[in-house]
Amino acid sequence: xxxxxxxxxxxxxxxxxxxxxxxxxxxxxxxxxxxxxxxxxxxxxxxxxxxxxxxxxxxxxxxxxxxxxxxxxxxxxxxxxxxxxxxxxxxxxxxxxxxxxxxxxxxxxxxxxxxxxxxxxxxxxxxxxxxxxxxxxxxxxxxxxxxxxxxxxxxxxxxxxxxxxxxxxxxxxxxxxxxxxxxxxxxxxxxxxxxxxxxxxxxxxxxxxxxxxxxxxxxxxxxxxxxxxxxxxxxxxxxxxxxxxxxxxxxxxxxxxxxxxxxxxxxxxxxxxxxxxxxxxxxxxxxxxxxxxxxxxxxxxxxxxxxxxxxxxxxxxxxxxxxxxxxxxxxxxxxxxxxxxxxxxxxxxxxxxxxxxxxxxxxxxxxxx
Length: 369
What we know:
Blueprint: E1 12-18, E2 27-34, E3 42-51, H1 54-61, E4 96-97, E5 101-109, E6 121-124, E7 127-128, E8 141-142, E9 154-158, E10 162-164, H2 171-174, H3 178-190, E11 198-201, H4 207-218, E12 222-227, H5 232-237, E13 242-245, H6 251-259, E14 263-268, H7 275-280, E15 282-290, H8 303-308, E16 312-315, H9 321-332, E17 340-345, H10 349-358, E18 364-368
Parallel strand pairs: 11-12, 11-14, 12-13, 14-15, 15-16, 17-18
Antiparallel strand pairs: 1-2, 1-4, 3-5, 3-9, 3-18, 5-6, 6-10, 7-8
């Protein structure tokens, strides 16, 4: 087929197809997948790299289903309700190409798209909004979940989600930003973290957590980061004022002691049994924000803690486009740096997801095309 600028693209491409809910065997590397076309208002991007996220594993194993109450497991959930396994808590159609962290070059533009996007290097905002009702959160979706994503040589996306970017960073580093960093930026904007305030970041070695540490310091906040013992030095290098070893029981109190007082904000992607402790670790009028639950989604909430301390709880998923625009600005000015814990070929996606689950890395794992 021919793009708008006359450059031809192949009819078929390599892609990792998710064939259904289950273990890694549900991901198939194919070489005969049709290259997507640019519909009205869309662009086709030749993918240079695409980052891995918790959502890729969660979707494959069916963890988003309301019927699942445990932390993510690799084998998949036989009892997952297929009617709500998607990122938007709805059913998914298969096969599906996952991958939400798309970085590449625009090679085709659909009807109504500015010709200025042709040939531009772009970073794709993974949050999909309805064009007619962009503020309706119920109509939102995610690249790689409700629409095919970037674990492929080519990816189609709404043109308004393709942000031209001017940077010397290679694709593998740029692909560490879209999902995790926009999530972290969204969390801190929701919590209204301000200069001089204090924030605790559980899970600080992961993609979202490591981003939150840098973005919080960029705001002039004081950061206490929680991570595994082997990762403390790397997390400290991100700018954390104090680092606390992740451990079972007592970690919230240790964080408070390291901070010399309770926190204004807790930015959490871990959840699990420490949830109640983090609410106690907030000062009166504090703000708790979450975008994940890697330690488990079902938590104990003492409503007395919530109302007696005048706390505010935020869930962070669908964000305003300005969040991604702000992130692009941070990257272009060099205010933040990518943390890549490993890079893999598309053919090695099974190994990449297995390594992702071991959580031995700091930052993001990235698939290169």
